[in-house]
Design a protein that fits this description.
This protein has about 300 residues and is α/β, with parallel strands linked by helices. It folds into 2 domains: about 190 residues, Rossmann fold (3-Layer(aba) Sandwich), CATH 3.40.50; about 35 residues, no CATH class. The protein has 8 helices and 12 strands. The strands form 4 sheets. The protein has a 6-stranded mixed beta sheet with strand order 7-6-3-8-9-12, with helices on both faces. A two-stranded antiparallel sheet has the order 1-2. A two-stranded antiparallel sheet has the order 4-5. It starts with 14 loop residues before the first helix and ends with a helix.
Length: about 300
């Protein structure tokens, strides 16, 4: 029997059809590959503060309590007791740049599928999931609840978020600060974005990670890294609408474009590293199952 081929969500899909397809094409395969061990993905959340103790070499530095460390003149870490019920929040960047990609492989489609899969996995065990959706000008919040109906609501709301032709350049700093003020109980937080934004979002991301377990999911499309040789094109900034004529026959131009994309990627990875946040790079052409398994393996290796 051949492995089913993963295909992202088409634009006019219904929530029920999206979830049915993902149950068959993604979740069943994940159950087999991860053998139900989703703790490699969901480690470190659904916990309550229990105690403080002195830092030991194998401890995660993200749990150092800097206030106590300063008073005691020696590093101390926070200890947490596991809570059976956990809450996960999806912070979703649905600004115009997320609509980039080919007809059937847009970043937005990959975002919808990723959120639906993770929400389904979490709610199967009675956990609660919620979402904050930001399109560059307005924010929509889905309160955290459990159950399959909640997953269908999340899918429905994601599918029906308006696609803006353009907007003021995305301000993730504002979005993350709103989340920082809104999410009170320690939670698992997925920040899902292409991180094409005004500068300044690194600080609130770091602050968010000090209170919660934060995972960054960076959406990208191969055409944002490797420019195809298609002759003279009009390139438009998805956020601002600014247009520029470029000659893609020019090999040196394509090389400069590629180098600039790699430089931006390196800067993003450094920002995630400084914030202490695990990051998954998710391409519009990725197989979602393999991407999630790869991410789980990365997190498992980091925890050793």
């Amino acid at each position: 029997m051949s492995t089913p081929i993963y295909a992202p969500t088409p634009e006019k899909a219904t929530p029920e059809r999206v979830l049915l397809r993902l149950d068959w094409q993604v979740i069943r395969r994940l159950d087999g590959l991860l053998q139900g061990d989703y703790r490699t993905l969901f480690y470190g959340f659904g916990v309550d503060f229990a105690d403080l103790r002195e830092y030991q070499p194998q401890d995660d530095i993200r749990y150092i309590d800097w206030n106590v460390t300063a008073r005691m003149d020696t590093p101390y870490v926070r200890q947490y007791s596991e809570d059976r019920e956990l809450t996960a929040w999806f912070l979703l960047d649905l600004s115009p740049s997320v609509d980039f990609g080919s007809l059937d492989h847009q970043k937005r489609n990959m975002l919808v599928d990723f959120v639906a899969v993770l929400a389904r996995l979490l709610t199967r065990h009675g956990n609660r999931v919620g979402a904050m959706m930001f399109n560059g000008t307005a924010q929509h919040t889905v309160p955290a609840r459990s159950g399959k109906i909640q997953v269908l609501r999340l899918i429905n709301d994601m599918l029906h978020q308006p696609r803006l032709p353009r907007a003021p350049f995305t301000n993730l700093d504002l979005f993350l600060r709103n989340a920082l003020n809104s999410i009170k109980r320690r939670s698992l937080v997925f920040v899902i974005s292409d991180f094409i934004s005004e500068p300044g979002w690194e600080r609130p991301l770091s602050l968010l990670n000090q209170r919660h377990e934060v995972l960054a999911i960076r959406l990208w499309d191969p055409r944002e890294v490797e420019l195809p040789d298609l002759g003279v094109l009009v390139m438009e900034d998805a956020e601002t609408g600014e247009q520029l004529h470029v000659d893609t026959h020019d090999r040196k131009f394509r090389q400069r474009f590629h180098e600039a994309a790699l430089k931006r990627e390196a800067a993003l990875n450094e920002s995630f590293k400084r914030a202490g946040v695990d990051a998954l790079s998710l391409s519009t052409e990725d197989d979602l199952v393999r991407a999630i398994v790869r991410f789980a393996q990365q997190r498992k290796k980091r925890r050793k």
